[in-house]
Design goal:
45% strand; four-stranded mixed β-sheet; globular; 119 residues; 7 strands; mainly beta
Length: 119
């Protein structure tokens, strides 16, 4: 019984402390998905500034990963853009973090870049 409790606590710890960090480069096979994470609150948003230029990836969805603490106005949420690899090649995803009043094509913001190689 003690062993089951210890294993349950270890499992809870490992799954409860997930860190959503992006890598600079990814390698995936055709048909696989890649999640690019971002965290923001109600003041700001992220956009894919070069989505129309992606040749080997399709954006499947944007999903909520972590809603943050309950009853916390203004706290960050964690989201993921989910891409599916559709053909061989290399694409670079460019994400911009913007305030609510800015457009995705704004040149005042340097994008975060993630290179995806589809093999």
């Amino acid at each position: 019984m003690k062993r089951i409790l210890v294993l349950s606590l270890i499992s809870l710890f490992l799954h409860g402390c997930t860190n959503y960090e992006n890598k600079d480069k990814y390698e995936v096979n055709v048909g696989e998905t890649v999640e690019i994470y971002y965290s923001t609150n109600s003041c700001c948003y992220y956009c894919i500034s070069n989505e129309e230029k992606l040749n080997h990836l399709d954006l499947l969805e944007t999903k909520t990963i972590d809603t943050g603490p309950e009853d916390c106005a203004g706290c960050n949420y964690t989201y993921a853009f989910v891409f599916k690899a559709k053909s061989l090649g290399i694409d670079t995803i460019e994400l911009k973090s913007l305030t609510a009043s800015m457009d995705c094509d704004s040149n005042n913001v340097m994008p975060e870049k993630y290179i995806i190689k589809v093999k």
